[in-house]
UniProtKB/TrEMBL annotation:
Statement: the UniProt record of this protein carries the keyword Membrane: yes
Signal peptide (residue range): 1-17
Pfam families documented for this protein: OstA_2
Organism encoding this protein: Chryseobacterium camelliae
Highest taxon of source: Bacteria
Membrane-crossing residue ranges in chain numbering: none
Residue span, Organic solvent tolerance-like N-terminal domain: 46-199
Alphabetical UniProt keywords: Cell outer membrane, Membrane, Signal
InterPro entries named in the record: LptD (IPR050218), OstA-like_N (IPR005653)
Protein name listed in UniProt: Lipopolysaccharide export system protein LptA
Length: 581
């Protein structure tokens, strides 16, 4: 009797142990929020329903005694259909594991296929593993492990995967797909590969409805046609259909071997048009030149650019750079008329144009510079200074030696006028002057050395001679010359007329005999207020220096005039006085 009782006890304990099934071994993503919590009280519609199965088996030796389905298995939960070769149902937990050719058809139209799946019907979260593919009308996601949440309509993977939308293929370490909004959040070595471009960055969000991508972190858009043409940004938006980029942080546009940067930028990859505002720089390494300003535009097809809002350009030379500034600067390249395979570079400065080089500075209404050939054109009221010499005219052309990077010569067309301070260290009002219709000026050792004037040539030259006793220069007077052609040689403190031909007429007047008004031509225009003396002066319309006040030395002339007046007075005194009767 006692033996029978013990046997019944062990039998009952064995049946009890079989009824107490072990909980499912879940993926960490599917763990219950509260450990050891009792199973929730579920309504029938909340449970997983079996639609079809060839066999329903419950084997204590398999799956911890939980029943499992095999053969054409199809189960349903709140409208979603799961099919598989085999499905284990954990009834108490409302949890299933699907194995082999698993397929989940969701109510939102998306489909997930995988080698195996886990699904918690209480939280409506699942995990798919092994050759996972998620498809919906917008794209296809492929990865090794996919986590999905039906309640929040999200799918997530972090083991690497690809997403294709018919046109583009996206590679990423991890991504979250929001099925309702069709937004994808890519993270970790993201690459978007399309027929026209490649996008690479650490964090990209893309709206599959609008095809708009947002960039967070260093991102590059590279053209497939020309990989050197690319866009870089650390924060921006890209419209993939229209290929328009809106760049907000540390952005650069690389095109035609040039680099455009700015605080806020726009670029259209189809038209090749781009804009930039705030701290804009256009760098051209091939030309060794950059342009800065507050606003810029580029035209990739025309290979041209424009800069406004206090723009300035720097042409970098090895020893002595060349600076430009104006209200608007344009740069462009054009094929050489003699050789279409060679491109020439040009720079245009419009309205209140200025330039600076250590041995030459200038200003005009506009300046055109052929960077390749080294030819500069100055239009409308040009001024060019070199040392204490000034050249003006209707138009000035400056010719640079592209090898030595220095000015070789100038051509002044129309109303040419060259002025040279007699003594740059003194404030005496003494200036050598030569003028005419046309003038060619030659440089030597970076200084104006010689000038040739053609047509109505005139000159006013201060003449010195060496005192035989003191061996020092002594003022002789001023020579006034008019000729058809004048050749002039500029020396340190003198202007020497070396030739005067075609209707030559030259007279030298002592200082006591030449009146002050004849010491300057009527259109004398020595400009010290607007003169550019350092490169920073080009950054403003005019440095507006205080006008230099020169001291006129007319003592000898005044003394002679005083003596003449005295002699006239004496002669008047000798004349008899008439008196009225």
């Amino acid at each position: 009797m006692r033996f029978l009782f013990v046997l019944l006890f062990f039998i009952s304990m064995s049946v009890f142990a079989q009824d107490q099934l072990k909980p499912a071994q879940r993926d960490p993503y599917l763990q219950n929020p509260v450990k050891n919590a009792p199973p929730p009280q579920l309504n029938p519609q909340d449970r997983v329903h079996i639609i079809n199965a060839d066999k329903i088996i419950k084997d204590p030796a398999k799956y911890d005694g939980n029943r499992y389905l095999t053969g054409n298995v199809k189960i349903e939960h709140q409208g979603s259909i799961l099919t598989a070769d085999e499905v284990v149902i954990y009834d108490e937990e409302n949890f299933v594991k699907a194995i082999g050719n698993t397929r989940l058809q969701n109510t939102d139209g998306s489909v997930i296929t995988a080698g195996e799946m886990e699904y918690d019907a209480n939280t409506q979260k699942g995990v798919a593993r092994k050759n996972v593919v998620l498809t919906d009308p917008k794209q296809t996601i492929k990865t090794d492990i996919l986590y999905y949440d039906r309640l929040s309509s999200q799918a997530y993977f972090n083991t690497g995967g690809t997403i294709t939308d018919g046109q583009n293929v996206m590679y990423t370490k991890s991504a979250t797909y929001f099925l309702n909004t069709k937004m994808i959040d890519f993270v970790g070595n993201v690459k978007i590969d399309s027929p026209d471009y490649i996008i690479e960055g650490p964090n990209i969000k893309q709206d599959q409805n609008t095809k708009i991508a947002e960039f967070f972190g260093p991102t590059t858009i590279t053209s497939r046609k020309n990989p050197r043409n690319r866009v870089y940004t650390e924060r921006g938006t890209y419209r993939m259909n229209t290929k328009e980029a809106f760049l907000k942080k540390n952005s650069k546009i690389f095109y035609n071997d040039k680099i455009l940067t700015g605080d806020d930028m726009y670029y259209n990859q189809i038209t090749g048009f781009g804009t930039a505002t705030g701290n804009v720089t256009l760098d051209d390494p091939n030309e060794k030149r950059y342009i800065k300003g507050g606003y810029g535009e580029i035209f990739e097809v025309k290979d041209s650019a424009m800069m406004t809002k206090n723009p300035y350009a720097v042409k970098i030379f090895e020893k002595d750079s060349l600076y430009f500034a104006s209200e608007k600067i344009i740069s462009f390249q054009r094929p050489d008329s003699l050789d279409a395979t060679v491109k020439k570079s040009f720079l245009r400065a419009f309205r209140k144009a200025r330039f600076y080089k250590s041995n030459a500075q200038g200003r005009a209404d506009s300046i055109a510079f052929n960077e390749t050939d080294g030819v500069m054109h100055m239009y409308r009221e040009p001024y060019l200074w070199s040392g204490e010499k000034q050249v003006t005219g209707d138009k000035v052309e400056a010719y640079f030696n592209t090898k030595t990077e220095n000015i070789d010569s100038l051509k002044v067309l129309g109303n040419a006028f060259a002025i040279s301070k007699v003594d740059s260290l003194s404030l005496k009002d003494e200036f050598n002057q030569v003028k005419g219709k046309l003038m060619t000026v030659y440089y030597q050792n970076n200084n104006i050395k010689e000038a040739k004037v053609i047509g109505n040539a005139q000159s006013i030259v201060y003449v010195d001679d060496e005192n035989q006793q003191t061996k020092k220069p002594e003022r002789v007077g001023i020579t006034l010359s008019t000729c058809g052609i004048i050749g002039a040689l500029f020396e340190e403190k003198a202007l020497q007329i070396i030739s005067c031909s075609v209707g030559a007429n030259s007279d030298t007047y002592p200082m006591s005999m030449i009146e002050p008004a004849k010491r300057k031509f009527p259109d004398f225009n020595w400009n010290t207020k607007d003169r550019i003396r350092k490169w920073q002066d080009i950054l403003v319309d005019s440095p507006n220096y205080e006008e230099i006040k020169y001291q006129a030395d007319t003592s000898l002339y005044d003394q002679v005039q005083e003596n003449i007046e005295k002699e006239k007075a004496k002669e008047e005194a000798k004349k008899p006085k008439r008196t009225r009767r």
